[in-house]
Design a protein that fits this description.
The complex is a heterodimer of chains A (110) and B (589). Chain A has 110 residues and is α+β, with helices and mostly antiparallel strands. Chain A has helices spanning 6-10, 26-32, 46-57, and strands at residues 19-24, 36-40, 44-45, 77-80, 83-84, 94-95, 100-104. Chain A has one domain (18-104): Beta-grasp domain (Ubiquitin-like (UB roll), Roll). In chain A, a hairpin with a 2-residue loop joins strand 4 (77-80) and strand 5. The chains are: A alpha+beta (110), B alpha+beta (589).
Chain lengths: 110, 589
Amino acid sequence: MACRCRERWRSWGCNLAGKIAVQFYGLMRLRLQTAAVEISGDDLTIMALLRLAEEKTGQGFLDELLDKEKGLLTGTIILVNGENVRLGQGLETRLKGGDHVDLFSPAGGG
Amino acid sequence: MNGWMGRIIKFDLGSMTQETVAVGDAIRRQYLGGRGLGVKLYSELCSSSIDPLADDNALIFMTGPLTGTMMTSGRYQVISRSPLTGTICDSSSGGNFGAALKGAGIDGLIIQGRAAKPVFLSVHDGQVEAHDASAFWGLDTQRTQKGIQAETGSKTSVSCIGPAGENQVIFAAIMNDKDRAAGRGGMGAIMGSKNLKAIAAGGVQPVTIGDPTGYKALTARLERIVDKNPVTGKSLQVLGTSVLVNIINAHGMFPTENFRRGVFNDAEGTSGEKIAETLLQRQSSCYKCPIGCGRTTRTRDKNGEGPEYETVWAFGAHLGISDLTAITEANYACNELGLDTITMGSTLGCAMELSETGAWKESLRWGEAGKLRDWVTDTAYRRGIGAELALGSKRLAAKYGRPELAMQVKGMELPAYDPRGAQGMALSYATSNRGGCHMRAYMIAPEILGHPVFLDRFSTAGKAELVALFQDVSALVDSAVLCRFLQFAVGISTFTEMLRVVTGLDFSDEELMTIGRRIYTLERLFNNRAGFGRGDDTLPPRFFNEEFQTGSSRHRRVQLEEMLDDYYAVRGWDTNGLPLPRTLAELGL
């Protein structure tokens, strides 16, 4: 699937070819001190991607997104190319090179 | 009496007389306080055709039974007919002022009449006193608060207007406890029309608690729940409300350049994350609030509070501005001058589009950050271009022949969520009793944030029921009175428990939901009498006719009509949006 929000990603300097771009927001970004990583791989599930992203950043962050049973916390938002994975296969959603994944830990405001 | 102080005072500024307003136990139980009781009393005092800025209009400051008791209970509501919309309006503010009114021995204060010269009122030990405010007239909200505290005591809490209210700008705010705002609907203009500069309240009268043991246990439990909740215990504390900038932008519904696009390419630079990294000095809290979503910030030249999410958007993406310092200083200016940041920013966006289309000859350009502060200041003083901006977007766009360019509902400007990206939010905007506001039914919670459950944002199915439910719960919380952010951590049954332990009355969840519905319907009746009906429960044509071409809300339009019929049916209103006799009978209206 072609990138649907390329302009936004370009601002982060991501080279998307053949890679999955992962963007961290909110508390995760502050914790990891990084805004984005790229993960090589194809046909990964979200869960597999998250574990690879943990390896890449060298820090655990899954507790910001998942509960103790490794399900999505109430309020966690994971977007793949702008679409919320809760409307599809959740953590089993499959990813391919060129996909963009936005990770938001539970947040509120208004 | 537990929870309530049992004293509401009506003060006539024309005759400088006061009287106690009797409110029976049954009415108190049916409307609680805050917004509910305020609307009830207002409806009995004023007709729906009253000029909001006329002497005989009433302006009601009201607390609730929970005010001054448990966490997040420092808030108060201001109720009147809005000069911006002509609807019934309540405007809510945090800080300590609500708790201070209770400490001063009253539940509420009804103001009528117009003082012959500027005055401020002080409330202490259940009595209201008027004082000459000539020395404060013309001062900004910060100097006013300090000056009045110097006269009434440093521990008093002061609710006041700035120059915008004095000049009766129809979206003037009331400010208290430095930078807390009863922002929406122009309540500050009504204070100005009455020559009322401020109200100072303070005292140590206690709120008696009906079930002290239950109160103590519930307080401890609530603290644990709020602390453990990732939104109230972490996100709002660390990042404030502006954490929403990136979230809403990623959903392609961050209104950009007067709602013409849904993705702002410079959103990152105005995000909560960026504020935390650059301007944030410390978080700030309202009365007994463990959340602390407020932001105390500093730019190179100034310091103050904010910006909150809606303000970041109103002076940022909405105007194509990415200069966070300029946005923040425009926010400071609104706080000092006493202006609603949402309507101010939104009106500027409307003005920029009017200018771009050539409908208005003034030159206001997208992204023009350098003039922001001047535009805000000129609006507060209604001078130069500001005299036109002070009209608000609806009147400004109509004046220049392009009414469709005002992004408003019933005259109130929409906030920072494009309704094409969330159908439930669209219905919420359209049916809001005070106009284009996100606080009547915050459908962003389920449709975007996944609280308390996640819903498909583009579906219309079931949205009518949920919008009505959220509206009723919001009316209830605004009448208790508590902060809405508690709703990220607890639900209706907890509010029921809170009211039970404080008042000692045997409230049930069902009774509280009926109270919320009663209040919402009473507001609707007022609006119906003021001439509002189905034709006003709508949105600007842009949302029905234009689609975004990029972003994840692209190729979407609002599908309002199908939801509106369902909504009226759920509410027990007829197809024109008039409550049916059986509905009124059920609610005791």
